[in-house]
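User: structure tokens for this one?
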Amino acid sequence: MKKLVLLAMSVVATAAMAAGPSGVQTTIAGDSTQAVVLLTSTVTNTANGTYSNAQQNLASNAGDVAITSSGNSIQIVGAQNTTFANTSNANTKAQQNVSSNSGDVTISGNSLQLTLAASSNVRNTATGYNAKAVQSIASNSSCSTCL
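Assistant:
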């Protein structure tokens, strides 16, 4: 039960920070902590069919992100015996971000991104015509538009 509560809280925190409405910037001016703890779990994101697009964010900020000089962003994913799987098929695009900032990222403050994975499997797959796959783990990437 504790795992489910932790996972639910993590998903809510990630979803809140992952992406706002189109054209809206995510600004971190205070303290922001996103943490996901997974034990013997599977995190799967799959899109199948024509023009499929699969995007998965765990403890990540995605889109137009600014961490101001007074901002502190901590993003942590801890996993043991866990599989992260992001798959897209057909005319495909797959993007996976784990404890990352992805998109138009500006960091003027403090940012700590940490991914600890023991006995785990991290997969990001795009198969089919014009397939593209991008995976970011504990990193900053402006590649959200390269798909």
